[in-house]
Specification:
heterodimer; A: alpha+beta; four-stranded antiparallel sheet; two-stranded antiparallel ribbon; B: about 400 residues; alpha+beta; 19 helices; 7 strands; globular
Chain lengths: ~160, ~400
């Protein structure tokens, strides 16, 4: 179980960037593209500091004390999904939790800065049909309120059919 | 432009493109005013030229810095995401090539778009590019082509030959997955290979690309490369050279070595192209270019070869080919390659260049081809004259 293992971003295979409250990720080996927003962005930021799952859950519970059960239920699944997609890897070096805090960084500092008053379980949006999505005209063939890679339904069907 | 007829020239921005560039590059009110003017005058639902389209990720980044709210923002963000994705994939594949070269002891330098992304923009989502250009020292080019062959890469059009090394500065390579990249041994056609090759490498700066340590031209050299590559007529308006150059000014203004800049321009005989580019950037975008630099470059003597080659490089080549065929275009290319030779010397050597371009075995084949083409042309003119008199 990885609850007490330190996790880190799979930097040899994954690139990521946070823009305007959204983290976008690319698995360079598979070509799969991902995005997450709101709580996903915050959690990704914490994971960049190689936090262990147990510490992550503990920090979130401290920040959102009324939502213990929701946090305990959603975070392990979310982390498991990130590992399954090879976005995160379990640190080879077995480290004890709280390592990061010993180095002067405290996850609560990050969590205190966020504006959300309610915890919403993080969601990882995954895009795999990249050949089709890359052919989309990002002005005329995408949803106006989200932009690429979200296609207008008709356009993606046409691309796939072709 | 110095005495240049603006017709058919698309390397400088139209009024709409200028507004878009200012909205993408400037700070504060001037940027916001340009954005509002561009937004009011251009409907992106209509056709947009590809040169303008390629600026949209940069526009998005600048609007974001200025906290602009607009219904268009989400789609601009999408264009940024798409550019980021494509560039990251390109860089990842390039990282593998860099590793092959490094493992074989070959030095590498990233030039053009990827170098700008890594060094100037420091962002992989703002500058779209179609491929990555990797340069190796001329002394290691044969080892580099051997490495590529072993790894399943082959040149797309021109062969790996002595003539290619002599007449060209790069070759496009492709692998079985249809990945492409350009292998350079010199950065641009006018580059003085005898005098400047070591100097370019000695002044290069370290960068990281796809977890591989490589180099890029120093900002001063990069500025020259941007102007040289960007200021050619192109079916897609090549206006991003303006964004690239201004971004270099914004990122490295005080670090630019103007003495080196002027010296490189003189040695490479590229004063005409650089002169017009500098004057344009200074007048239109208030680029911080010392007046004495512009004056020195304006005063540089230029040969008739340079003037002819430059003048036509700004124009749509179809205008020439429709009337005279491709040979004049090849001749103008050859003048650029031989910019340090005289017109007579270049003309004498031109048949060899034609032989290379037409992939002919013997020089006599070139003369036979030219004679046949001339006879065909003369017959056509005579025939059209006769028909003209009948009608």
């Amino acid at each position: 179980m990885y609850m007490f293992d330190s996790l880190k971003i799979n930097v040899s295979q994954v690139v990521h960037e946070t823009i305007d409250g959204e983290t976008i990720l690319l698995n360079l080996e598979t070509g799969n593209y991902y995005s997450m927003d709101q709580m996903g962005v915050v959690i990704w930021q914490l994971l960049e500091n190689e936090i262990c799952v147990n510490d992550l859950i503990e920090a979130l519970k401290n920040r959102f004390p009324d939502q213990d059960s929701e946090i305990s239920a959603s975070i392990p699944d979310f982390i498991a999904e990130l590992i399954q997609e090879d976005l995160l890897i379990i640190h080879e070096r077995p480290t004890a939790c709280n390592d990061s805090r010993q180095s002067g960084w405290n996850p609560l500092d990050t969590l205190e800065k966020i504006e959300y008053s309610v915890y919403c379980p993080p969601v990882l949006n995954k895009y795999t049909d990249m050949q089709d999505l890359l052919q989309l005209d990002p002005i005329h063939e995408v949803k106006v309120d989200t932009g690429w890679p979200t296609a207008k339904p008709d356009n993606l069907e046409n691309k796939t059919a072709n | 432009m110095h005495g240049m007829d603006k017709r058919d020239v698309n390397v400088f921005a139209t009024p709409e493109q200028e507004m878009l560039l200012k909205a993408s590059l400037l700070k504060g009110d001037p940027s916001l005013i340009a954005w509002r003017e561009w937004r009011a005058s251009v409907n992106i639902e209509d056709h947009m030229d590809n040169g303008s389209f390629r600026l949209l990720p940069l526009l998005y980044q600048n609007l974001r810095k200025h906290h602009v709210e607009d219904p268009l923002i989400d789609r601009l963000k999408g264009i940024y995401r798409q550019t980021w994705y494509k560039n990251q994939k390109l860089f990842y594949e390039t990282g593998k090539i860099l590793k092959y070269f490094h493992d074989a002891g070959i030095q590498t330098m990233i030039v053009k778009g990827a170098a700008l992304s890594a060094l100037t923009y420091k962002n992989h989502g703002v500058r779209p590019m179609s491929d990555v250009d990797v340069m190796v020292p001329f002394s290691q080019i044969l080892t580099a082509t051997e490495v590529l062959r072993q790894k399943g890469w082959a040149p797309c059009i021109y062969p790996e030959s002595e003539e290619t090394l002599k007449y060209r500065i790069s070759l496009q390579y492709k692998n079985s997955c249809n990945d492409e990249f350009d292998l350079h041994w010199f950065p641009y056609i006018e580059f003085n290979r005898k005098k400047l090759d070591d100097d370019l490498w000695n002044h290069s700066v370290p960068i990281m690309l796809a977890n591989e340590e490589t180099t890029a031209p120093c900002p001063t050299d990069n500025l020259i490369h941007v102007m040289i590559h960007g200021t050619w007529w192109n079916p897609e308006p090549p206006i991003r050279w303006i964004a690239d150059a201004m971004s270099i000014f914004n990122a490295f203004g005080v670090e630019l070595d103007w003495e080196r800049f002027v010296n490189t321009v003189r040695i490479n005989r590229i004063a005409l192209r650089i002169r017009d580019a500098l004057v344009y950037l200074k007048n239109t975008f208030h680029a911080d270019i010392p007046n004495h630099v512009i004056k020195t470059i304006i005063d540089m003597p230029t040969s008739i070869t340079e003037r002819i080659a430059y003048s036509y490089s700004l124009r749509n080549p179809n205008i020439i080919t429709e009337k005279f065929g491709y040979i004049p275009i090849l001749y103008l290319d050859f003048l650029r390659i031989n910019s340090d030779a005289g017109l007579l010397q270049s003309t004498i050597n031109f048949p060899r260049y034609l032989q290379y371009n037409y992939q002919m075995d013997h020089l006599s084949d070139v003369f036979f081809y030219l004679t046949t083409a001339l006879v065909r042309k003369a017959r056509k003119i005579l025939l059209s004259g006769r028909l003209g008199s009948v009608f």
